[in-house]
Design goal:
two-stranded parallel sheet, 4-stranded mixed sheet, 3 helices, 33% strand, alpha/beta
């Protein structure tokens, strides 16, 4: 009887000592994203985004807000070359929202309320000649969203948001390349 109890206690102890999954932090490295080269002597990035501080807007609560990631990519990966023209990039929106929504697909023991996270990026590209005549322009707009359970750890929440931001930035880069090829092809390298 003593040995059975000892075996049960040892078994419980061994199973309780299982390793904890450690999730590595997400890195934002814009140098790994694609680059765009455009024939312009000068590049001007104007941040015209004025965030609305509300319960749903969580930019101030995260370590890497979308505006920081977007500005970093635009300054380091949109490369200007040549000795004429001016590229003006207007950032109009770079928001991330968190909303409580009903979980319509919830089963019996699942949460009835979940969180929805949505990133929205809106940027205008203008290319002017040296006389300030508009040569070409385009607008790039992307939206990406995801959901999570309502009761998750801070680490899980940060990972979900960072993953969403990385995917949104990749979408933005792809859409920028597509729109610039469509409307500014003669000025691209």
């Amino acid at each position: 009887m003593f040995f059975k109890s000892l075996i049960i206690i040892i078994s419980i102890f061994i199973f309780s000592c299982q390793p904890i999954e450690v999730i590595s932090p997400v890195e934002f490295d814009t140098s790994k994203l694609e680059k765009i080269s455009i024939n312009a002597k000068e590049k001007v990035i104007q941040n015209n985004y004025d965030p609305l501080f509300s319960k749903e807007n969580i930019e101030s609560q995260i370590s890497n807000p979308p505006i920081t990631i977007l500005e970093d990519w635009l300054s380091s990966n949109v490369i200007n070359f040549g000795n004429q023209n001016k590229l003006v990039i207007n950032i109009l929106d770079a928001s991330i929202l968190k909303k409580e929504i009903d979980n319509l697909n919830a089963k019996q023991f699942e949460e009835k309320i979940i969180f929805s996270y949505e990133v929205f990026l809106l940027v205008e590209y203008y290319l002017y000649d040296d006389s300030d005549y508009l040569l070409a322009n385009t607008t790039v707009e992307i939206t990406r969203s995801t959901t999570s359970q309502k009761y998750i750890s801070l680490n899980e929440k940060e990972l979900i948001i960072n993953d969403l931001l990385i995917k949104a930035q990749k979408d933005f880069v792809n859409e920028s390349k597509s729109m610039l090829k469509l409307y500014m092809a003669p000025y691209l390298q």
